[in-house]
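Box S1 | Example of a co-folding query
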Amino acid sequence: MAAKEVILYHYPHSPYARRAVWYLALRGIPYSQCVQPNMMPRPDVARLGVSYRRIPILSIGRDIYADTRLQLPKLEESYPELPRLGATTPEQKAIERLLSAFIIDGGIFREAAKLLPLDLPLFKDPNYFKDRGDFSGKPFSLEALKKIRPDALAEIALGFELFETTLLADGREWILKTEKPSLADIEGVWALHWVSGLKGALPADRFSPEKYPLVYAWIKRFQEAVTAAKARNGKPKSLSGEEAASVIEKSSWNEKEKTVDEGDPLVVAEGLKKGSMVAICPTDTGRSHKDIGKLVSLDKDEVVIEIKTAEGETVRLHAPRHGFKLRKFDGEKKGAAKL
Ligand SMILES: N[C@@H](CCC(=O)N[C@@H](CS)C(=O)NCC(=O)O)C(=O)O
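Box S1 (continued) | Returned holo structure for glutathione
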């Protein structure tokens, strides 16, 4: 895959975005950023014709990628001249993938997000509650957050304990015993890094370098590696929404157009073919933000649709199959795609 300009739409406090920022830094991939507000509306994203509301969004050339679980593998395929971060042996690949599943699907990050300190300045803004209600699909309140805190702490303790007593127990520096942090470290560390760095999130008598020395030392080591990489690479260029959109619109495709797997059970059930109008959205958070476009390709890993930017230029939006729903779109009328 030829290297094209990389642009990351994100905001600095987003823990998911850090997964991509850290990956880019550790790999030394040059990129620009388009910094976003921490809640909707996001006109810069709308300018791309993208309805997907989650952060980060990544573009490589004229291709736009939703979800870090697709973005990181796509970056891994890019810039082949730079050493990759991904695992190489089947066993290591399994650890990498299982860590992603444990932290994201297994709920460690979801539980960590319930530990936001109740005195956070953001909590003084009623718009934030409305916005995150839309994001999660459920009303979001401080009372509810307070109530679920003890359960969340119990789940997070299981996360710390797992790393302390298994993967880090033999004193290794990095999860796959590599010389430098690898993708498996990113997959494992990000949620614990975030929650342990959030003042007031974790009670000091239950979570500390004394209680989990190996985990805290790993988090510190990881942060030092990222800080050093960022210092080596220099700061990314910041683009306005208009500048970023115009770079994307003028780029060539990052990937060759692929085909639709005709035997895929969803393709069969929905009667889809290349060019069918489809709607896609995530299945967990941000579900009400559907992207509608022409189906370009679909395989076991990703679905690609063609959408139009606000300037009427064609771009391709890629989403992973895992965690996303796709249906045929027959227009905004009775019987239209219900996602
Ligand atoms: N599975 C997605 C999750 C992304 C996600 O939930 N991002 C958070 C920010 S950390 C978000 O979009 N929050 C709501 C918002 O910022 O609008 C991914 O891996 O990229």
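The CA atoms of residues 163 and 235 lie 32 Å apart. The first strand starts at residue 6 and ends at 10.
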